[in-house]
Write a structure and sequence with these properties.
The chain is of the alpha/beta class and 608 residues long. It contains 20 helices and 21 strands. It has three domains: 7-205, 3-Layer(aba) Sandwich (Rossmann fold), CATH 3.40.50.300; 281-508, 3-Layer(aba) Sandwich (Rossmann fold); 521-607, Helix Hairpins, CATH 1.10.287.380. The termini are far apart.
C-alpha cells in the first residue's frame, strides 16, 4: 500500500504588495521523493519553500505534515548567534552520543568544527547549516541553494550523500550538473502556477519548451475564437434573444480569459560589450610566490594571459583563487615575483561579496556608483559611455519602475545578482573578472550570460564552482589544489578532470610552453644594474602608446574596407593591396606591443 505524503500543501495563496505571488498552489511530497523546484528569479521559489517549512505564513490554504514527521529547512542566511563554534551549531539537533554525525558532515563539507561561530564567514555559516541538516536525518529536506559557497569537492560529497540517503528532498539550485545528478522529479513555479513533471531536471528544458508551444497554440486559438464571436455579434443574423444573450456572455468570458492570461516575461535584455581593444598580451605573471600565516598559498606561478582568453580558476575553498586574481590585477602584491599588464587594459570586476548598501533604492544604487559616472540629473547613468535613464536601463534587467524605487533589501538573491550585473555591464571593459557569477542566478539569466560571455571580444578571468558553466565558457582552466601548486589544463572542467593525473599531458601553469621572443631593443640596450633608462629608451616608451593607437586605427579602417563582400570582384588589386597592408600593420602592432612591454618591465625593475 502506498505511503501517505510526508508534506501536503492545499490551495496555498500568498500576496505581496497587493499582487498575488502565487494562488491556489497544491502539492503533495512523499518521503522518498527527490525533487527540484525551478522558476525565474522573483517567481516565489524560496518563499514557497519557507511556507512548506512552516517559516512563512500563507494567506489562504492548508499545510499538513504527517504526525511525527520532521521537516528540515536550509536557510540562505543562517543565524549562528548563541553558539560558540560551528560544531556546536551543527550538532544542536542530535543527541550527545551522536555528535560524530555532525562532525562527519562538517568534514565532508571541508569545514573545521572549531571555527568560532561569531567570526564565521557567510560561506562557513551556510556549510554549518547544511551539516546540521544532514546530521539530524530528517524525513524531508528543503534545500535552498545548497551549493552556494561550496567548492566542487564539497558539492560532489553532497551529491553522494543525497543519492545514498533514504530521506526525500526538494532543492532549489542554479547548478545544472548538481540537479542533473540528484533529482528524479521537477516542480516548476511559473507565473504563480505550479507544474509537475515525473522526470528529473535533465528533461526540464524539453518539457518547458513543449509547455510554452502548447500555451502559444492555445492563446492563438483563443484569439481566433474571439474574432469569430466578435464578427458574429456585429454581422450575424439575429436569432432568438436568449441565444444572442448567451453568445454575448460567452464572448465576455473569452475576453476575460484573454485579459487575465499572464504573459511570459521575456529574457533580460543584457548587453555586454568590450571597450577599446587591449594589447595582444593582457597579463604576464612571473614566478609569483605568496604565503599566508607562514603557509605557501602560491609557489613559483608564471603565466601569460592573451587577449581573448577565457581562463577559469578552480580549486577548493581557501586554495587562493581570489588571492591570485587580486595579484594578477595588481590589487595585492606577491611576496616575490612580478605582474605586468599589457596596453590599454580596462577592467570590470564582479566579486563574490556583492555588497550593495541595503538602505539604498535600486535607483540610488545605480546612480551613486562613481565608477559608472552620472551625467546631468540623477536620473541618468552612463551606459557604455552613453547617457540613459536609470529606469529604462533597469527594465532591461527585468526590474520594473516600482522595484527601481524600492530598497535593495527587498531583492531576492537572484535579483541582487542581476542588479550587480547591470552595474558592471554599464561599463566599457576589455578585461572582465567574475568571481562566482552564477550564485543565485536563474537558468534563463545564466543561459543569456553564457551567450554574452561567448561573444565578448575581451578577456575573461572566471572563478566558479559551477562545472557546467565552466565547461561552456572556459578555454583553459588553472587548477589550484590547495598545496601552493597551480596546474593549467586546456579546456573546461570536464577536460581538466579527464586529464588530471596524466603527468605527460598537463602543463604546469608555472612553466608555460612559450617560445622565447627575440631580444627587443630594450634588452639589447639595457642599462647597467642600478642605472636608469637611457634618453632614447625613455623617449621611445613615451611615443609607443601613440604609435600603437595609430596602428590600431589603421587596422580598423583596413578591416572595414576588407569586410566589403564585393571588393574582391570589383577591384581585385585594391583587395590584395589592402590585405597586404593589414598584415604589415598587424605585425608592426605586435612588435610595438612587445617593445612597450619590455621597456615598461625594465622601467619597473629599475624603479624598484
Amino acid at each position: 500500500m502506498a505511503r501517505p505524503p510526508i508534506l501536503s500543501l492545499s490551495g496555498i495563496s500568498l500576496t505581496f504588495g497587493g499582487d498575488p505571488l502565487f494562488a491556489d498552489i497544491s502539492l503533495a511530497i512523499e518521503q522518498t521523493e527527490r525533487l527540484c523546484l525551478v522558476g525565474r528569479n522573483g517567481s516565489g521559489k524560496s518563499t514557497l519553500l519557507k511556507i512548506a517549512a512552516g517559516i512563512v505564513q500563507h494567506d489562504q490554504g492548508e499545510r499538513f505534515v504527517q504526525p511525527g514527521g520532521k521537516i528540515a529547512y536550509l536557510p540562505q542566511d543562517p543565524d549562528l548567534s548563541g553558539y560558540d563554534t560551528v560544531l556546536d551549531y551543527a550538532a544542536v539537533d542530535v543527541d550527545e552520543d551522536e555528535v560524530y554525525k555532525a562532525q562527519i558532515a562538517l568534514d565532508g563539507l571541508r569545514l573545521d568544527g572549531s571555527v568560532a561561530a561569531a567570526s564565521a564567514s557567510g560561506g562557513e555559516k551556510r556549510r554549518a547549516a547544511l551539516a546540521r541538516m544532514m546530521a539530524s536525518e530528517p524525513d524531508l529536506m528543503l534545500l535552498d541553494e545548497p551549493t552556494n559557497h561550496l567548492d566542487v569537492t564539497a558539492i560532489e560529497w553532497l551529491e553522494n550523500e543525497l543519492l545514498e540517503s533514504r530521506t526525500g528532498y526538494v532543492v532549489i539550485s542554479h547548478d545544472r550538473a548538481f540537479l542533473n545528478r540528484v533529482t528524479k522529479g521537477t516542480l516548476w513555479l511559473d507565473r504563480g502556477v505550479m507544474r509537475r513533471n515525473a522526470e528529473g531536471f535533465g528533461r526540464f528544458e524539453a518539457w518547458q519548451e513543449k509547455t510554452f508551444e502548447e500555451e502559444d497554440a492555445e492563446q492563438h486559438k483563443l484569439g481566433r475564437k474571439i474574432k469569430r464571436e466578435e464578427h458574429w455579434i456585429v454581422h450575424g443574423v439575429s436569432g432568438r434573444r436568449k441565444r444572442n444573450v448567451r453568445r454575448v456572455a460567452e464572448l465576455a468570458a473569452l475576453r476575460e480569459a484573454k485579459r487575465t492570461h499572464v504573459q511570459r516575461a521575456g529574457p533580460a535584455a543584457m548587453v555586454l560589450e568590450s571597450g577599446k581593444t587591449s594589447g595582444k598580451l593582457v597579463i604576464e605573471a612571473k614566478e609569483l610566490f605568496k604565503t599566508f600565516s607562514g603557509t605557501p598559498l602560491l609557489s613559483d606561478f608564471s603565466a601569460k594571459i592573451m587577449r581573448g582568453d577565457r581562463v577559469a580558476f578552480v580549486g577548493p575553498n581557501g586554495a587562493g583563487k581570489t588571492t591570485l586574481l587580486k595579484m594578477l590585477l595588481k590589487n595585492l602584491e606577491p611576496d616575490t615575483g612580478t605582474v605586468l599588464h599589457g596596453a590599454n587594459i580596462n577592467v570590470a570586476v564582479l566579486d563574490q561579496t556583492r555588497e550593495v548598501p541595503e538602505h539604498l533604492s535600486l535607483w540610488e544604487a545605480m546612480t551613486e556608483d562613481k565608477l559608472l559616472g552620472v551625467k546631468g540629473s540623477n536620473d541618468q547613468i552612463l551606459v557604455r559611455g552613453k547617457p540613459k535613464h536609470v529606469v529604462g536601463y533597469l527594465k532591461e534587467f527585468l526590474f520594473d519602475e516600482r522595484q527601481a524605487r524600492g530598497p535593495v533589501s527587498a531583492l531576492s538573491g537572484g535579483e541582487r545578482a542581476r542588479l550587480l550585473l547591470a552595474k558592471i555591464m554599464a561599463r566599457e571593459s576589455n578585461l572582465l573578472v567574475l568571481d562566482e557569477p552564477t550564485n543565485d542566478l536563474d537558468m534563463e539569466t545564466l543561459d543569456l550570460l553564457q551567450e554574452l560571455l561567448a561573444d565578448y571580444d575581451g578577456t575573461l578571468l572566471l572563478v566558479s564552482h559551477d562545472r557546467d558553466f565552466i565547461d561552456r565558457i572556459a578555454t583553459s582552466t588553472i587548477a589550484m589544489e590547495g598545496d601552493g601548486t597551480a596546474v593549467e589544463y586546456a579546456g573546461g572542467w570536464s577536460d581538466y578532470r579527464a586529464l588530471r593525473g596524466e603527468q605527460s599531458t598537463r602543463t604546469p601553469a608555472g612553466k608555460p610552453a612559450v617560445s622565447k621572443p627575440a631580444a627587443s631593443p630594450s634588452q639589447v640596450h639595457s642599462p647597467k644594474a642600478g642605472g636608469k633608462l637611457s634618453y632614447k629608451q625613455t623617449h621611445r616608451l613615451e611615443k609607443l602608446p601613440e604609435e600603437m593607437e595609430r596602428l590600431e586605427a589603421e587596422i580598423a579602417k583596413l578591416e572595414e574596407l576588407l569586410a566589403d563582400p564585393d571588393l574582391f570582384t570589383k577591384d581585385n588589386a585594391k583587395f590584395v593591396k589592402a590585405g597586404a597592408a593589414l598584415s604589415e600593420r598587424q605585425d608592426k602592432l605586435a612588435k610595438s606591443e612587445e617593445e612597450w612591454l619590455e621597456l615598461e618591465a625594465l622601467r619597473e625593475e629599475l624603479g624598484a
